[in-house]
Amino acid sequence: MCIYLSRPDITDKEIEAVCAVLRSPDLSLGPRLAEFEQAFADYIGRKRAVAVNSGTSGLFLCILALGIEPGDEVITMPFTFVASATSIIMAGARPVFVDIDPVSLNIDPAKIESAITKKTKAILPVEVFGNPAGFDTVCEIARKHNLSVIEDSCEALGSALKGKKAGTFGKMSVFGFYPNKQITTGEGGMILTDDDALADVCVSLRNQGRGKATGWLAHERLGYNYRISDINCALGIVQLSRIDEIKAKRRQVAEWYYEMLADDDRLIVPTEPDDCELSWFVFVVRLAKGFTTEQRDRILKQMLNRNIQVSNYFPPVHLMPFIAEKFGYKSGDFPITESASKRTIALPFHNHLTKDQVATVCITLKQFLA
Ligand SMILES: Cc1ncc(COP(=O)(O)O)c(C=O)c1O
Questions:
Q1: Rounded to two decimals, what is the model's pTM?
Q2: Considering only CA atoms, which residue is closest to atom 7 of ligand 1?
Q3: pLDDT-based confidence at 98, cuts 50/70/90?
C-alpha cells in the first residue's frame, strides 16, 4: 500500500455537481463560472475574482495586466515553485531574486530594498507552504517605492496574518487549484483584485482578447485561451463550500506529525507563527544542520522504496539551468535558500491520512535518520 504525498478530498457532492454540468448545455462560460468567482471573491473578501485554467496562467495574466514588459524587473524569491518566476519570464521581464528568511522561508523583507532598481515594476512574494508571515512588511516596502504587489497565494487558501486573509495583500493575488492544493478544480486558478480595470483586462486576456461588448470574433488585444470550464468551476464551488472542514482535517494531520516529530532534534519541523493562522498545505521537515544533501537524497529514495511518497520541496529556482544560464545566477547567490533546499523533506500530507499512516511515515523516517 502506497502512502501518497497528496490526494484530493472529493465527496459525492462534488461528483453530483460535476455531473449536473455535464447534463447541461453550459460546459464553458456558463453560470458556474460566475458563481465560483463570486463565491471566491466573497470568501477572500475582495471585489473581483477572475477564474483561469491554472495558477501559472493567473500569475502571467497579472503581470500582463499590470503592463510589465521586456526590460522590466520583478522581485521574487528563489525558494518557491518554478511558476512564480516563469510567469515573469513568460512576459519577457527579468526575475530579480531576493533571499528568504531562514525561519518563515518567505522573502526576507530586509533584503528587498537593495534589490530595487529603476526597472523594478513589482514585487511577487510567495506564501510558501501557505505561510503569510512578513507580508504586511513587504506591502509597506512596495507602497514606499510605488511598486505593485502580485501576491502568489497559490499555496495559502484559508491562511491569515493578524486576521487578514492571504489573497488580500497584493494589488493582485493568485490562487491555484491543482489537486495537491487545499481545494481543487482538477486544474485551475483564481485572480483576485479590488481594481475593476485590472480585472476586466484579465477577463479579456483569458478569453482570446475579446472585449466586453464586442462579438465572439472581435478581438481587442493579444489574448490567450486560459478559460476554465464550468465542469471545473462546479467542482470548485463545492470544494470551497467545504473549506473549513478541509482545513480542520489538514490541521489534524499536521498536529499528528507535530506530536510524533517535534521532539526529534535531527529535524526542524514547521510551526505556525504566533501572528498567523496557517491553512496547512504541506508538512515539510528540514534535516538539522550537519546533514548533507546526499544524506537527504538517500532518505528520500529509501522512503520511496518503502512506498512512502516524499519530495524535495523546493530546489532553488535560480539554479534551474535555463534560468541560471539566461539571467547569470550561480550557486552561492542565495545562501539561505540553497541551505534550506538541501535539507527539506515533504512528507505525505492530505485529508485521507490516518493517524496510523502518519505513525508509519514518522517511524520509517526516524529509522532512516539513524
Ligand atoms: C507557489 C506556487 N505558485 C504557482 C503555482 C502554479 O500553479 P499551477 O500549478 O496551478 O499552475 C503553484 C502550484 O503548483 C505554487 O505552489
A1: 0.98
A2: 55
A3: very high
